[in-house]
Amino acid sequence: MYKAIIVEKSVKEANHLIGLLTQFCPQVYVICYALNFETGSRLIKKHLPDILIINPKISKKNCQFFLEKNRSMSHQLIFVSHDESESILALRHAASDYLLKPVKFQELQQAIVVAMENIAARKSNEHHELIVKTVYNNQNAKSKKFAVPTIEGLVFVKMDDIIRFEANGTYTNIYTVKKEKIVASKNVKEFEDLLPKTHFFRIHNSHLVNINRLAKYTKGRGGTITMEDGTQIEVASRRKNDFLEIFSQY
Q: DSSP H helical segments within 25-104, as ranges?
């Protein structure tokens, strides 16, 4: 459920939008509405909405101040107005949509879809940045934890506790020494790009392994490795030389 706040010039206008959202956008819950920008600012600070719907025509001067004051907030912004005179302002403040009144429910639905997609993309980027930051800080500290994004949130795991990563479509199954299976909402390639090459090797398209958790290598066309948990994985023939090169340095 996505939280929304409406800033409109009248109770009637606000209730009309609430009615449309309730009927046609069930993913959105309107927490409250404000009839001026000053009240709107207080409500944003208090409730931290995901989506903010405003009528810029309440007051052009106050709207500019309001938008600048709340620029650092992470909500998606949707403008609703009787004319297009404030469209430049909407562009300047990266509004996800600008709807002309009377608002058609189809256009409102589409605006909400765009807002939700932007929110999902932002959260994905935040997860990615968090992984990068924690992995970077832990390259020389295997015992420390880093964040793994899942559909439910974040799971914190020690880098050295990971045995292997296994591709699962757009997701990744992560197996640990504690016999845990963590389903991460990132693909294997993303983990390969982020993790230190001194610790992890892409042995096959579907597997990224912790080389410190290898137990055995058996010769063959590409060969087969056995991990500490007993899992056997074929080495892709095109990766065999690079894999064996790792151990020639010891």
A: 37-47, 60-69, 87-92
What's the pLDDT at 132? 55
The per-residue b/e assignment along 131-155, b for 16 or more CB within 10 angstroms, e otherwise, is beebbeebeeeeeeebbbbbeeeeb
DSSP 112-139: HHHHHHHHHHHHHHHHHHHHHHHHHHHT
Q: Is the pTM of this model over 0.85?
A: no
In order of 25, 35, 176, the CA distances from 22 in angstroms are 6, 20, 44
Domains of the chain by range and CATH?
Answer: 2-123 (3.40.50.2300), 139-248 (2.40.50.1020)
Task: For residue range 28-64, list pLDDT tens digits in order.
Answer: 999 999 999 999 999 999 999 999 999 988 876 788 8
Which tokens in the block code for residue 208?
């990224």
Q: What's the distance, Cα to Cα, between the start and end of the chain in Å?
A: 53
Element (H, E) at 227: strand 224-227
Residue 131 half-sphere exposure toward CB, CA atoms < 13 A: 22
- Taking the C-alpha atoms of residue 244 and residue 248, their distance in angstroms, rounded to an integer, is 7
Strands 162-168 and 224-227: unpaired
**What's the burial of 87, exposed, middle or buried (CB within 10 Å: 0-12/13-18/19+)?**
middle
What is the pairing mode between strands 232-234 and 224-227?
antiparallel
Nearest to 5, CA basis, from 51, 73, 37, 46: 51
